[in-house]
Amino acid sequence: MDLPLGGVCKAGESRKLETGKWRSFRPVVDKAKCIKCGRCAEFCPDSCMEIKEDGAEVNLYYCKGCLICMRECPVDAITKEVEEK
Amino acid sequence: MTIQTEVKELHAPGHRACPGCGCAIAVKLILRETGPNTIVVSPTGCLETFTSPFRGSSWEVPWIHSLFENAPAIATGVLAGLNSKGNVDGTKVVAIGGDGGTYDIGMGALSGMFERKDDILYICYDNEAYMNTGIQGSSATPLGAGTTTTPVVGDSFGKMVSKKDLLAIALAHDVPYVGTASIANPADLKKKVRKGMDNPGPAFILMLSPCNLGWGFEPEDTVELARKAISTGLFPIVEFENGRLVSAQKIKPVPVEEYLKPQKRYQHLYKKENFNEVLKAIQEKADRNIEKYDLAKDRN
Ligand SMILES: Cc1ncc(C[n+]2csc(CCOP(=O)(O)OP(=O)(O)O)c2C)c(N)n1
Ligand code: SF4
Ligand code: SF4
Ligand SMILES: [Mg+2]
Questions:
Q1: Are B137 and B129 contacting, i.e. CB atoms less than 8 angstroms apart?
Q2: Atom nearest to A26 CA in ligand 2
Q3: In this structure, which residues have their CB less than 5 angstroms from ion ligand 4?
Q4: Which CATH number goes with the domain that contains A75?
Q5: What CATH class does B22-293 carry?
Q6: On chain B, which terminus has fewer CB atoms closer than 10 Å, C or N?
Q7: Does A18 reside within a domain?
């Protein structure tokens, strides 16, 4: 790794770190059930749930698979799958 | 209903917190309310560590890591620097520290910050032990909880004494805004962060911050446990302005067992009969809180 002068760290540089690699479970959203309440996005510790026009969508680049979104979804629109690596 | 397509968190993803970390949820919510015109100070601890590996900062507000023991003093220095330049933009200073950094080693510096009446919001994310170094007990570790330094062996039942009352300590300093908040109630949390920032002078917010690694529970239960801490009465959601209680969240009390049983750090209490006394003491603590703040709904 080439060290920049003075060891400069830029704001928000963690955005390039792919924490999705840590996942052992993957949350799966059933968009037909999703009511777009935004609870999963509110509670996700890794800010990777986004509420799109047609329902919640997981950003798997960051998602660590904690499944808080699944637990907190009021209509059980999120289930888990074992992550295949 | 808000469609959050454009949420751009100031606490960037890619941070190194354990999956399901309560503190990570807290800080995301806190920064949503503070906005970008804020300088954050953090003492050493999980938050500092998981947000600042070299070339991996998660902070999109100016942020400074103090030593473990002096975040409040560094925050005072940041504020003095801003003020010496007139602070024309009205930049706010917020310190966010763990329980070890706040209840224990930073206590002297925090007391000084409170005494000087510096215009700083100090938020303690309380995961009830020194998590970053491997779950050592702190003075925030509650009665009966097992940690590596409050071990469970033979007749030893984990932490032998109860948790320090940090709210009372803040109130004893005449801190004008003092409250508790929870990741289980983001709207209330954000409201309190706003009040703490707008209040001229020091403000203190205590947030219980479930840690699945240190407490031993499934990561998916983080928010549910924060909720159970409230509904048992063990973590009352209260707010004081100028020393007067101005709000207390009502609950339908549930037995402390609902909060304790899912956590490994309390498992031993259910395995030995002579630990029943400890369970009783924990329930009594919850009952005292319910009484003190008149928390129970439909009392008759
Ligand atoms: C003066 C000093 N003593 C000890 C340490 C080692 N240390 C680093 S983080 C930490 C624990 C922090 O605990 P807490 O404040 O509760 O935050 P948490 O990690 O639990 O989030 C310790 C003991 C240190 N960095 N500096
Ligand atoms: S599993 Fe966890 S990290 Fe992944 S989207 Fe759900 S809450 Fe976020
Ligand atoms: S040890 Fe606990 S507080 Fe620290 S990052 Fe992991 S879950 Fe969060
Ligand atoms: Mg801690």
A1: yes
A2: 1
A3: B 98-99, 127, 131
A4: 3.30.70.20
A5: alpha beta
A6: C
A7: no
